[in-house]
Specification:
Layout lengths: L4 E6 L2 H8 L9 E4 L6 E4 L1 H5 L12 H6 L3 E4 L2 H18 L2 E6 L2 E5 L9 H16 L3 E6 L2 H13 L6 E3 L3 H10 L9 H10 L5 H6 L2 H7 L2 H10 L17 E11 L2 H21 L2 E12 L10 E12 L2 H15 L6 E13 L10 H19 L38
Helix pairs in contact: 4-5, 10-11, 12-13
């Protein structure tokens, strides 16, 4: 039985989440901004049609925002994450295996589905159910390899006549799409590599698929050779139904204003450490190494520049927020210097290992068990929708925290912000 994959991708996901609970924004241009409301990181279809580019600083398009009544939003990661989980849970009900590739994309295994349902009908069913149950529009690309499925999904978005579903299970359809697809649109190729490929006369995806495989490996890499094989219909990339744990966890943010006091820096570092520890526990891992960094702004010639970092090994691997915050605070004191206006701080946890492999301290085992239970309780509360708890060192007012002037309500994550009809 030959392999079959589907790539399901949410259309303009961040912007779609913002308009979902505000019908008045339908068909209106929407942009979503990066941390501190600096640059555009997501756009609705209407905003793209106006020519707004990804990464453009928001201050450069102020006139366009006013002229075209563009709706502007700060990134609402809690909302996007919750809506993503809802979409992925639907996909997991419809396919035997699902690989969550990103917050708005997932690969599905369709092997065996043809025995009781046509592939086109399956793609339409996915679109209809996700739309009906979440309000999010998706496109579906179906093919015998992940690279072809990615290409099929791109075509489903680019050509409205497809109805949002493109099935490349047949070779003749694969050839037609490969022939009209520019080489830079192939998954994993990108702009720089496409320039080198065009020098060899490889202009389209079909050209890459038909190129000599040994030459590709010799001139470029085994990765590009694998891509060419996938374009030929030879599956080289398996579905990853278990996400590999990260090898390090970084939490770093720019401040909404310049920070000079050690107290404010201590609050920010404590908050970043707590967030990193939360991610660490979610992976069921512990860390053996902790580092803290900070720096001033880089682009103001009238202010002195300073940056530094410090790292420490931990006597016992841990994912306990309070223990990590205590160590991070100690490192911060060692590298902080008065008289500077700091713009950014960060925390990195490294040398990660599975939690169950951690070597416990014989003399503190009862205390460790209580602290582990405490962290689990905190995570359980914070993972719900009834409130949040935090360690006092993180501060309450957090005036240094990033700007989010255009933040939308937590429609699906806070009881007090549920839409009222």
């Amino acid at each position: 039985m030959s392999e079959l994959f589907a790539l399901v991708d949410c259309n303009n996901f961040y912007a779609s989440c913002e308009s979902l609970f505000q019908p008045k924004l339908r068909n209106r241009p929407i942009v979503v901004l990066s941390n501190n409301d600096g640059c555009v990181v997501a756009r609705s279809k209407e905003a793209k049609q106006l020519g707004i580019k990804m990464g453009v600083p928001v201050h450069q398009i102020k006139d366009m925002i006013r002229l075209h009544r563009i709706a502007v939003f700060s990134s609402n990661y809690a909302l996007y994450g919750d809506m993503s989980q809802r979409v992925m849970s639907i996909l997991e009900q419809m396919a035997p295996q699902v690989e969550v590739y990103s917050i708005d994309e997932a690969f599905l295994s369709l092997t065996g589905i043809e025995s009781y349902q046509s592939l086109n009908d399956f793609g339409v069913a996915v679109r209809e159910r996700v739309q009906q149950w979440t309000g999010i529009t998706v496109c579906v690309g179906i093919a015998p390899t992940k690279t072809l499925a990615k290409l099929a999904n791109h075509a489903a978005k680019a050509y409205p006549a497809t109805g949002g579903v493109v099935n490349l299970s047949q070779c003749d359809r694969q050839q037609r799409l490969l022939r009209i697809t520019p080489i830079e649109e192939v998954w994993g190729v990108g702009r720089r590599l496409s320039v080198r490929l065009r020098e060899l006369g490889i202009e389209s995806a079909l050209d890459l698929a038909e190129y000599d495989l040994k030459s590709l490996r010799k001139r470029f890499s085994v990765v590009l050779e694998r891509t060419a094989r996938e374009l030929r219909g030879e599956s080289c990339l398996a579905l990853e139904d278990v996400t590999e744990p990260k090898q390090q966890i970084v939490c770093s943010r720019s401040f909404s204003k310049r920070v000079e006091s050690l107290d404010e820096l201590r609050e920010s570092v404590a908050s970043y450490t707590a967030r990193a520890a939360e991610k660490l526990r979610a992976q069921q891992q512990v860390c053996k190494m902790l580092s803290v960094s900070l720096r001033t702004g880089l682009f103001n010639p009238t202010e002195p520049i300073y940056s530094n970092s410090a790292v420490t090994p931990l006597a016992t691997p841990t994912n306990d927020s309070s223990q990590l915050i205590a160590e991070a605070t100690r490192l911060l004191r060692a590298i902080w210097r008065p008289g500077y206006r700091y713009a950014k701080a960060g925390v990195m946890l490294s040398e990660l290992s599975p939690q169950e492999q951690g070597q416990a301290d014989l003399f503190s085992a009862p205390e460790e068990a209580r602290r582990k239970q405490l962290m689990q309780t905190i995570d359980q509360i914070n993972g719900g929708k009834h409130g949040k708890v935090f360690i006092g060192a993180q501060g309450i007012r957090q005036e240094w925290s990033m700007k989010r002037r255009y933040l939308s309500p937590g429609y699906t994550t806070r009881w007090t912000e549920i839409p009222q009809v």
